[in-house]
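Lab notebook: predicted structure, single chain.

Context: the supervisor wants predicted structures on file for every construct in the current expression panel, including those that have not yet been purified. This is the next one on the list. No modifications to the sequence; it matches the entry in the shared construct table.
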Amino acid sequence: MDFKRHIAARLRAGELSEEEIYSLIALPPNTEMGDYAFPCFRLAKTMRMAPARIAEQIAADYPTDGIVTEAAAVGGYVNFRIDRVFWAKQTLTRVLTEREKYGSSDEGHGKTVCIDYSSVNIAKPFHIGHLSTTVLGSALYKLHKFLGYTPVGINHLGDYGTQFGKLISAFKRWGSRAVIEQGGLRALNALYVRFHEEAEKDPSLNDEARAFFKKIEDKDPESVALFEWFKELTLKDVGKIYDMLDVHFDSWAGESFYNDKMEPVVAELKEKGLLVESEGAQIVDLSAFDMPPCIILRSDGASLYATRDIAAAIYRKNTYDFYKCLYVVAYQQNLHFRQFFKVLELMGKEWAKDLVHVAYGMVSLEDGSMSTRKGRVVYLEDVIHKCIEKAADVIAEKNPELENRGEVARIVGVGAVIFGALYNNKIKDITFSYDKVLNFEGETSCYVQYTCARANSVLEKAGAYAAPDISAVCPQEFEVVKRLADFPAVLHDALEKYEPCFIARYAVDLAQGFNKFYFDCSILNAEEEGVRNFRLALTDAVRITLKNALGLLGIGVPEKM
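Prediction complete. Output recorded below exactly as produced.
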């Protein structure tokens, strides 16, 4: 039950509407003050009264019932207290009825949301820097689907540019089909690194690379065949990582897909008088919006990222008629997105307001930065496997008798990588630490997974339990009930702000609340049968909710640990 809605529907506050009242209702700093609070400061001017006096009047007039048991004025606030038993019954009934669907809704019914994420570069390594966009985008995909939207996951492949000419040049000079087939992306990257080393000594190699890329554009059979082979090898390698991370896409349309869709964009910009020549290049002047010009065509007539992104946005709107189109791309590209969003707006695309840059911070390891060109690359696959190995060591120490230890280590290790990238606000830079993400007692997925395993163990020992007849709720039980009840609202906030970290932190908070309850309150040996059944139902509800929360992040939950 939405208690905020129940309070708002019965509260009278000057000329404020129910929706305005609902939006103002908040949580007090601690539960001793009450469960919900309504601030009266905004009403002081229109009601010509002090906030404290308004609070007293609202509290006196509020009709308490079997749900809201108290409305009390405290300073300029009205604090409301909800009946504990009613709250517990409502929450447990909902969780245990809806189970794996608990927290879901149909709020997005009929709305399509395009999500552009991961977007790997063909023939370049899938490294630790791709982690955030991949798991953040995947979590937003899962969250939108859970809340009733129709998400379209788009991997906007980097499959266009001079780097492919460099690779063809390097392959024809130093490559071997057998070596590349066996080594995959790593072997291709070694060729890319060697090309740059050799080009420093012989700059004419760069001209050769540009010539080979021109051959791709001109549909030269040999060059196109090599490019398609590089692409096939890349998708095969990255597909293994996507499978490990439970990441899926509905579209793999990369940059090259839009080659024949850019000419109409340029024509429309010209027709609308938006293109201006500058030093031979064709630009859209954005000085009126405190931005540098958006370059559409270089002086040699070549297109740029902005040109292709404008074409891609128009294609996506025409194809999917999206409600929103999200771009999960690092904050270094803030200006790029502001520019091409503004160009689309100037073109008269009313839907440009529905384009959203979901910016995130960078991920690095504790031992330094990377450079693809110089070969300093931390492969994401290596990070995942190292986490799995370290998880196996910890699990072997904690539970040497555990069956299927390898599978549990895989679930725990992969979950640690994902959770480590999603636990903090997306805009923060992250220094990835193996020890931190695999800490079973910290704010980690391991801790949450271990809590689920503990709940599983309790329920397995208990066997079947009867429907609880709740007559009283102690403070530790109530804290768990409150956190369970918060889950749908947390999901709504996470979606609204594009912040999966809300879900990750919620999972840790719920796990902490359950563990306090677990140690403070006897579950299996409770003195009364009714209390035992209630606590078992509470344990079951926690297990369900934690599993749902982790699932939305792409993290599995082992039955035992």
